[in-house]
Inverse folding.
């Protein structure tokens, strides 16, 4: 990676750090809560699990919400650098939230409050593939299934967090922090749906392409008005890599390809073959719910399942945005949908971006259906 091209985003990141505005006192409008306390930036000696939270999981898993009413969550997702595999023979030094690309899935309910901690640990080696105490379901799942073959690495850089599910002032909560710094802030999940999160430090294109993105699922407080329960839920994130062969064994970020929107790989859940190597599972006659997000950073997605029709689709995952009987769901960069599908019969169903140039670069997967259970 060319050092001169790395310096500019670092300088912009540092220029944007430390900026804040006067805080608005907390208030409620239309049943939604606004006006969070000012973010805190500090240093700490924390060297524990990089991901902490009871409802934080690894793709494609979504932990069910097993509580009544609303909950105050404390969540940590630290920034760590990892060498990862994204396709057979293709490894690069990724900038990550929590150690994987995409980062962890956070599941909350509409109206929940989240106190969020994030330490920029890009200047230290952090191992994520060993069991840890006090972590999250994510940490256990990564230790059991490290499909990106993670290795700890170091590349000190300024970073930030932008939760699309949050309604806050970006120059406060989404501010950039340097290596060794921690940020803490609150936000309330005021709107139901499925939302991307990503690094907002310039160049956002580079930071997101390097791996800093993930997904939050905000379940509607009254659920989806369907009259049925789904049998299984999965989270699927489509994203792009812009990589070129480096001087050694690792691949590096391709600036020119990123600016011309010509990805080397377009994938589901961070790896070109993961949803074939480890297919999603269901049985004939079951209702499966997919929470699908196109995290880009730049391309569109025409999400389709070969052999199926989407029974119900909620654009952006909001219960008011319901459509029925769709063959394909068009998602721009940062768009999402919650999709219910009836599995018609035993067999294999191929998940695909129907923009076939993306499919041939890797945006495919498999759902394997067993026989119907009476």
């Amino acid at each position: 990676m060319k050092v001169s091209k790395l310096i500019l985003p670092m300088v912009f990141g540092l220029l944007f750090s430390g900026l804040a505005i006067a805080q608005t006192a907390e208030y409620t409008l239309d049943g939604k809560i606004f006006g969070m306390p000012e973010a805190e930036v500090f240093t700490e000696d924390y060297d524990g699990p990089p991901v902490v939270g009871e409802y934080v999981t690894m793709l494609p898993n979504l932990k069910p919400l097993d509580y009544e009413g609303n909950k105050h969550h404390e969540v940590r997702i630290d920034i760590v650098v990892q060498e990862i595999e994204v396709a057979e023979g293709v490894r690069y030094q990724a900038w990550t939230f929590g150690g994987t690309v995409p980062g962890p899935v956070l599941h909350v309910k509409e109206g929940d409050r989240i106190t969020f901690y994030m330490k920029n640990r890009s200047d230290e080696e952090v191992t994520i593939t060993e069991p840890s105490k006090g972590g999250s379901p994510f940490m256990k799942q990564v230790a059991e299934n490290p499909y990106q073959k993670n290795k700890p690495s170091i590349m000190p850089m300024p970073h930030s967090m932008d939760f699309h599910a949050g309604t806050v002032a970006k120059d406060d909560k989404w501010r950039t922090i340097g290596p060794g710094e921690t940020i803490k802030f609150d936000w309330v999940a005021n709107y139901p749906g499925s939302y991307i999160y990503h690094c907002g430090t310039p160049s956002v294109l580079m930071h997101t392409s390097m791996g800093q993105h993930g997904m939050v699922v905000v379940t509607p407080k009254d659920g989806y008005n369907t009259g049925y329960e789904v049998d299984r839920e999965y989270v699927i994130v489509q994203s792009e890599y812009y990589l070129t062969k480096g001087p050694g064994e690792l691949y590096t970020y391709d600036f020119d390809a990123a600016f011309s929107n010509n990805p080397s790989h377009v994938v589901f859940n961070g790896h070109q073959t993961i949803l074939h190597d480890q297919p999603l599972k269901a049985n004939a006659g079951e209702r499966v719910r997919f929470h699908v997000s196109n995290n880009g950073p730049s391309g569109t997605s025409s999400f389709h399942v070969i052999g199926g029709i989407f029974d119900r689709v909620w654009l952006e995952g909001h219960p008011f945005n319901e459509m029925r009987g769709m063959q394909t769901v068009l998602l721009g960069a940062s768009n999402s949908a919650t999709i219910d599908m009836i599995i018609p019969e035993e067999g294999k169903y191929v998940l695909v971006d129907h923009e076939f140039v993306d499919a041939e670069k890797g945006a495919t997967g498999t759902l394997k259906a067993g026989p119907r259970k009476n």
